Give the backbone structure.
Amino acid sequence: MDKVFKGEHLLPGDLGQFFVVLAFGSALFSFICYFFATQETAPKSDNSWLKLGRLGYRLNTVAIIGMGVCLFNILYNHYFEYHYAWSYTSRELPVYYLISGFWNGQEGGFLLWIFWTAVLGNILIWKAKTWEKPVMTVMALTQVVLGTMLLGLQIGSMHIGSSPFLLLRNAIEGPIFQNPNYLDFIKDGKGMNPSLQNYWMIIHPPVLFLGTASLVVPFAYAVAGLWQRRYKEWVSAAIPYALFGCMILGTGVVMGSFWAYESLNFGGFWAWDPVENASIFPWLILVAAVHVLIVFKNTGHSYFTATFLTLIAFVLVWYSSFLARSGVLGESSVHAFTDLGLFWQLVIGVMIFLAITIYLLVSRWKELPITKKDEETYSREFWMFVGSVFLGLSCFHLIIVTSVPVWNLMFGTKLAPPTDPVKHYNVIQASFAVVIALLSGFTQFLKYKKTDTARFFITTLIYLVFAALITGLIVYATGFYKLHFVFIIVMLCSIYTIVGNGKILADSLKGKYKLAGSAVAHIGFGLLLVGALLSAGTQKVISENLTGEQYSTEFAKEENPKENILLYRNEPVKMGGYMVTFKGNTVEGAQHLFNIDYQRVKDGKVTETFRLRPNVIQSQGGMSSSPDTRHYLFHDLYTHITMTNVISTAPQEQEASHAEAEDKEYDAPVAHEIAIGDTMTYREGIIVLKGLNKNATLHNIPLTDKDIAVGAQLEVISHGKTYQTEPVYMIKGRAVFDFGKKLEEPGLKLRFTKIIPGKTPADGKVEIMVYQQPESKKKFIVMKAIEFPYINFLWAGTIIMILGFFMSILRRNKEVEVATAKVKIQQKR
Amino acid sequence: MKKSAIIGIVVIAVAIAVIISTYSNTSTYGSFNDAKTTKSELHVVGHLNKSKELFYDATKDANYFSFYMKDNKGEECKVVFTGTKPQDFERSEQIVLTGQMKGNEFHASKILMKCPSKYTDDKLNVTEAKAQKSANL
C-alpha cells in the first residue's frame, strides 16, 4: 500500500524501529562474541572476541537509549498516528503523566527492563574483571531475549514481539484509514486509564523494573560459576548484587502497594491479586537465596540450595512476567494485561532460562562442592537454612494458587481460584510468617558452627517473654485479640524479631558492627509485619449506614452492616465520631473534586475540622474514583466516592430550552404573596424579599418608557450560605413576561409572577413562585470511609528494611574488595 | 536419621499440605443450576441481560444493586450485590460472579467484569467489585 498520508511524522517511528532492530542485532552479536571469548582456552589470545563483545553491548545500550528518545518524542509531541501514543495518552495529560504514559503499555515495560539490564551490563563490564566474559554472555543473552519482545516482526500470520513504534493505521483496521487525511479526524488520544493517573505511577514502574532487571546479575554469576567450574568463587561476588536486587525489588513492590493504597479502591495496600503475588515470587526466593549464599560463604554448607535458589529466582522473574503479560490471568486478576500475541514468546523466555538452570545443575552435579557433614543443630547456618526453606515454601504456596489458571490451561481442569482468596492467603501465609519471623529472631542469637547452648536458651527465653509482654499490651490496646489466633502468634513472632534484633543492633553499636545491617533489615521486616497485621486486622469501615434507609429489612438481616453511606448536599450526617457534610464539587480539568467536610465531635464540642477532597476522574469513557486520605500519626482516614449523581457518563442532555420541560425537574411550584421584608421558608432554608428594583434591565430587550420591568431582590439563605438573585417581572406593550432565575446550589428556581397593588405603594405585595428540587433530584454522593490504623508502621518498617539491605550491601562489597586485594597481593608474591 | 532427611520430610509434608489446602479451597466455575444444588460459594460466568431492569437507587439503599444475568448455559437468574453499582456496568461484556444462591436470588460477594474498550477490541479492561466486608483478616 503506497498511499501517502497527510500529516504523519514517520521519522521518529522509522528511527525508533531502526534502533529496535539494532538493539536486537547488537545484543545477538555481543552474545556470540562473549560466548566465544569465554570458550577461548588459549590464554595468549589478543582478546578480540572480548573487545567485539563489549562493542556489541555498548552499541546495544546506545540503541536502547535511542528507542527511548524516539518514543518519548512521539509521546511528547502527541503524534497520535502512533498506536502507543494514541492508546495511552491524550493532549490534556500533563507532562509528568506523559512520562508515566511511557511505561503504560507492555512495550514500555519491556523497554524499561531492557534499559536497566543495559545499565547493569555496563557496570559489570567495568567492575566484573575476571568474571566479565561469562557473566556478560548471560547479560547479552538476556538482552537478546528481551530484544525479541520489542521487534514487532510479522512473519506470515505469526508475529514476533510488539513494537512501540507501530502506526495506528497498521494496528487497527478501519475504513477511516482509507482516507489520506485520516489524521484530521484523530484529534486526540484515548487518554490514560484514570487509575494510573497517580504520582506513584511515575516512580513505581522504573524502580520495580530495576529490581526485576537486577535479578539477572546473581543469576549470571551463578551460571558463570557453574559454567567455568569456579564453583566457590562466584558466591561472594554475587552477594552484593543479590542484596541490591532484594532492596530495589522490595522497594518497587512496596511503592506499588503505596499506589494501591492511595489510588485504587481495593481498600488497602495488598489484595493478594495474582499480579501482585507474581511480583513477589522472585523477591521471596531471592531473599531466601541471599541467606543461603551467606551460609555457604561462612560455613561451606548448603551449596546446592544456594545455587538453585539464585538461579530459580531469575526464572521466576520470567514466569511472573509471563503471568502478568500473557493474558492467562484474564479471569482472575484486575491488573493483568491482555495477550499482545506474545504468549508463546513469553513461554519460550521462561523455558530458555529454566533450561540453562537445569542443564548446568545436572551436568555439573557430580562436581558441586556439597558437604557430606551435617550442620550442628545449635548453629546459625542450620536455622538460616531452615528459614530460607520456609521462605521458599511460602513462595511455593503463592505460586500454586496464583497459577490456577495455568494449571487449567495445562491439564484442562476447570478450577476456580478460592472464593475468598484474601482469607485463604492470609491464614496460610500467616502460618509461614510465624516460622520465618520466629527464626529471624532467635537465629541471630546463634553463632556460626557452634554455640553455647545454655546461654543461647537463656537469652532466647528472656527476649521471648519480653516480646510476649509487649504483644499482650498491643493486642489488648488495639482490639487485635478479636482475630484468628494465627495472627496473634504472627504478631508475637514479629515483635520477637524486633526486640531480638534490637539487642543485636545494640551490641553492634558496641563494636560488633558487622551484624548491624542484618539487624536493621530484620527489625524493618518485623515492623513491616506488625504494621501489615495491625492495619489490615483492625481496619474499620466507619461509613456504616445507620440511617435505617435500607432496601428491605429482610435483605439487611443476612448481610453485613452496610458500608456505604448516602450524603445529600449540605445535609450533615453522623458517621463514626464525625459529622460529615458533602459541600459540593469543583471541576478541575478531568477531575471532579468532591468537598467533604469532617467535624470531629466530642461531648457536643467540635474538636477538629478538616476537608477531604476525594476525586473522580472521567476518562476513556469511564469513571474512576480515587480517595483522599487524612493522615494521622497512628491512623489514616480514607474516603472515597463510590457513586454520585453529580456527574454522569451518559452524554449530557441538551439544556432544556423549554420552560415546561425544565419545570419537571422541580416539585410543583408554591406561590407566595409577600411584601418587602417578608420571609418565605422552603425545605432547605429561607427566602427574604429585600426590595424591589424598579429599574431592572434585561439583556437584549430594549425597554421603552411605557414598559415596566421590576426586579424582586431576593436573598436565599440555605445551610449557612447566602445567595442573591433577582427574577424580573415585565410588562412590554400589552404582554406580561416574567424572567425566572435559577439557583443551582440551593436547588431553587424563583419566578416573579404578579404585582398586587396595595392602597399605598409601600403596602403593595408581590407574588413569587418558588420551585424547589425534589429529594431525588438533589445532588448526592455515596461514599465509603475506612480507618486504617498503624499503617505508618508498615511504611516505616519497609524503609528500615531497605536501609538494612543497603548497610549489608556496603559490608559485603567491602568484603569482596578486601578479598580481591588479598588475591592481588598473593599474585604479586 | 540425618537432619537433612528430617528437613526433607518436613518440606514434603508442608508442600503436600499446601497443595491439599489449595485444592480444597479452590472453588469451581459453575452455572446457576449448580448454584441451586450446592450450599458453598462458587463462580458463575455469564453476561448481563440488558433488556431487563438494573436496579440501583442510592437514595433508597446505597448498598443494594440487582440485575439479571444469563449464565453460559443460557439460564437466567436475578443477582443481588451488596454494594454500589460498579462503574460502566452496562457496558460489560462478560461477568464473573462469586457468591451463592439464597432462595431464588443469587447473592454475589464479588463481581469481576470485562468491558470492551471504547474504540477497539484489542484491549479488554477488567475491573472488579467486591461486596465490602468489614474485617479483612
